[in-house]
Write a structure and sequence with these properties.
The protein is α+β, with helices and mostly antiparallel strands. The chain has helices at about 10-20, 225-240, 250-260, and strands at about 35-45, 50, 55-65, 75-80, 90-95, 110-115, 125-140, 145-165, 180-195, 205-210, 275, 275-279. It has one domain (about 25-220): Immunoglobulin-like (Sandwich). The chain has a six-stranded mixed β-sheet with strand order 10-9-1-3-6-11. A six-stranded mixed β-sheet has the order 2-8-7-4-5-12.
């Protein structure tokens, strides 16, 4: 299981990935045309049965990532038993707050936030993954009683049930032709308000539309190239954290081949991904 003793490696990979994919680790600085929409989709795991002997990636897609920095978002994930073992509920969790990435350089193609766990290795059973997405917003009240900027933070949840069985298919990140990711959050931002308090380490705060935009998770597809990049990053991070005890060069190749049809190797670790830190 991924725990606090993993030390600096996951944080190092996280910062390295940000620097390599964005060219900077500063906050979002480019101008935005409003209104603008942002969507979060759970790509993997899917509601399927997977082999019980592999690292399990957790992949979340962000649509319109160049604007997502406005949300000052955080992602927490939790894996629980379900079914006959539900009394032994909690298994593993992770957390990431994205404060330093310059998402404005990412363009408008889907971007993938990636976590992983080894807590289920060799464990058969039925499980539930819960995603807790934290986002911030603000409003300005101008009246004789109160003329000030008010900050808020909202949690939005996504869940998926999946099963692990020995002899089942190995996890594949490639999106099946007949399936779509699970959309679990969308945000319409009407404008941003400058702030002087540096709340959530941002100099602007987003104002949300009254109604959330309609989600379109089927717009996100992972092909073999993207899957390979994500897979290589997962394996490289697991090797650096000491979670794979055999020859990691071999494990990197083998595991990435299982998860995404081949490995990009260490040089492909950070192409289009961010690795989250589990706790």
């Amino acid at each position: 299981m991924l725990t606090n003793y993993l030390g600096l490696w996951p944080a190092f990979v996280f910062a390295w990935a940000l620097a390599m994919t964005t060219g900077t680790t500063s906050a979002q600085t480019t101008s935005t045309t409003f209104p603008t929409n942002i969507e979060f989709d759970l790509v993997f795991p899917r509601n399927e049965t997977f082999a019980a002997d592999a690292l399990l990636p957790i992949v979340i897609a962000i649509q319109n990532p160049q604007e997502v920095g406005l949300l000052g978002f955080s992602i927490a994930w939790y894996i629980y038993w379900r079914g006959v073992n539900a009394s032994n509920n909690y298994l593993d969790s992770g957390y990431q707050r994205s404060l330093w990435a310059n998402y404005s350089t990412f363009g408008n193609e889907p971007y993938f936030e990636t976590f992983y766990t080894n807590a289920l290795n060799g464990t058969e059973g039925q499980f539930t993954l819960v995603i807790d997405l934290g986002t911030r917003n603000c409003s300005f009240v101008d009246s004789n009683i109160d003329s000030s900027l008010h900050f808020g933070q909202v949690s939005t949840y996504g869940t998926v049930d999946f099963e692990m069985r020995n002899g089942a298919q190995l996890p594949s990140l490639i999106t099946p032709k007949d399936l779509c990711p699970v959309g679990f959050a969308s945000f319409g931002i009407t404008k941003s308000i400058p702030q002087s308090t540096n709340e959530y380490m941002r100099d602007t705060c987003p104002v949300m539309a009254d109604a959330a935009p309609k989600m379109n998770p089927c717009a996100v597809k992972i092909n073999s190239t993207v899957a390979s990049n994500i897979s290589a990053g997962v394996v490289a991070s697991a090797c650096g954290a000491g979670l794979l005890i055999s020859d990691c060069q071999d494990d990197e190749t083998n595991m990435a081949a299982q998860l995404g049809l081949g490995s990009m190797g260490w040089s492909g670790v950070v192409a289009g991904l961010v690795l989250g830190v589990a706790f």
